[in-house]
Amino acid sequence: VKLSLAGLTFETLTEADTRSWTEVPFGGGAREAALRTPLPWDPEQPVVLPGTDIRIQGAIDRLDLRTVAQAVRVTDYKTGQRPKAPDKINIGGGAELQRVLYSLACRQLLPDITRVAARLIYLRPPVKAYALENGQQLGDLVANWVRQARIVLENGVIYPGVAVMPERFGKIALPASASYVDRKSSAIREAAGRDLAAFWGSK
Known about the structure:
- It contains five helices and seven strands.
- With 203 residues, the protein is an alpha+beta fold.
- It has a five-stranded mixed β-sheet. Strands 2-3 form a two-stranded antiparallel sheet.
């Protein structure tokens, strides 16, 4: 309850033409309860990664829409611990994609909007917001990442994903020795390919 209150009272909106929503579904699969409230778009309309036929879907934690200014702001709330240097994290090697995907959904579903701002807010004190810079460029980067991963997978190569590399990579090899883990790490990166493996280190 305290964290929810922190999110709702973090700031006060003063623009008269601003409307706000929470848990805004996009890309299909919306729950029936969400459809009872007028939404800023058709929640069943597809959202596609650029240059692919891969559809994404989800729900945006919070969306603020200014119709007069043709601007939208999306927020991803975080209830966990704040990481080190959160202001330097954009996609976190693929572990932090909400802001990028939320922005992508807004650009496709609200084509008349000229400005899209995306941020994440850590709700544990001190509450603070972190804006995403270059959201459209990062969206293209992620789409390219997915295209690369798809090619590798369609060629029959399966490998551990970003959730186990690099910080938690040892989990898939324990109780093996550290040298064995290192050797397998190189093999996995080689199998994935240089282009794809490079994304795993993206900030």
